[in-house]
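Practice problem: predict the structure.
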Amino acid sequence: MARGGFRAGAGRKQLSGTYKEETKPVRLPLSMIPAVKKFLESTFRAKNHDGTIEGLYSSDFSEKSYSLPLYASAVSAGAPSPADDSIETALDLNEHLIKHPATTFFVRVTGDSMINTGINHQDVLIVDRGLKPKQNDIVIAVLDGELTVKRLKIESDLIYLMPENPDFHPIQVTESMSFTIWGVVTTVIHAVR
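Answer:
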């Protein structure tokens, strides 16, 4: 067998692909390879405006199940009702809050432009990238490289991102802006304490 010379696929690789940066081989136990592949396939990659990867957010909830007790009686928000401590079933929050695990991610809110919809500073939003945004949906948008949560309003050929706080002004999306909708907000997780 000859040594040296040109070999197909040999040598330093060009920076290409999704990440546009150098790579490093990693050794894994063979039994871990399917789990790592599954994680990477179910991961949302947040990109910066220059195309580099900002972070990875797992959206695979199939391995995690949090079943909590669900009581048979409802809680009255009006006049008090007699207490009932019979448990009806277990409640899995993933099953009730996440309809499309492969396209769902979480994001934390900063600011108060959406307070009139019950979205407050430091709340956690559950966002589904698999839903097609429509009129009046609350969406996570990327506007000129910045993330924002606003209500989507479409009039004729015009797109507006509407705040839900009178101290803020609507944003009209123009052709000169870099604009993408990352997903539709499906749930707000709001701490009361």
